[in-house]
Amino acid sequence: MTVPEVAHGEHLFWERVDTARQVGRTISGRLMKFFVQPTRADCVHTCTIDDLVRMLSYLPPSDWDRIDAILLRQPHRKQQTLASVWGRLAYTADFVDGHSRVLYSGPAIIIEAVNPTQPIKFGKRLSIDGIAELERLRSDGHKVDVHDKNHIVEPTLDACRTTQLYRTLLHEVGHWVDLLEKVERPAIANASSDCTALLDMFHNRLSREREQFAHAYADRLRARLVASQRIPFERQLDHDSLRHDNLLLQDFEPS
Asked: pTM of the full predicted structure?
């Protein structure tokens, strides 16, 4: 069993947003488009629009320059089982509706809906990266138990929100900063630079190197925001705001 990258035509499976409700918010003087897909009864969007707006307002706008869309996505059951992620950065995306009309084109951050009561299994033998991830989840508030064959992570809504709002969001912005520092800014500073060559070098790096940069960025920003007492903050679930944005409470509250 595999999750096909391309579904129903030329677009990647996470680019199809025909069921999503659209919300626009101004953050640091820039318009951010939010696409919110409806959730299944067993899943929830842990981060509200207001949560994400508040977090992004704390970050240097230059760090998320040209990221003008965030998708709160409901993965299919098969995707959650075989290719589960907290979120992802799309260096370039074409979000399309059911008729393949482009609703947004450009860099985007995707945050996945989760089942906050579904245990997460890690193998008994973990790599260095696996051990580090398990420790990050434990520090986010997830309970971690060791069984005969697996490490079992017992999530909660609050712990999942902590992971996605204070770590995943920052991690994906970190991937974008990595691109800015290694490709876009050098190309602008030196007009003779070969942008294509810089981009090839960027994508040909080891995945672990790219991940380490994003983790380091997220850790640094998170520590700074904690020190300034900006995070953590209470979940921003305002019913009036939801109604104004034509969003459904059920997509943000566990059933």
From this structure: 0.92
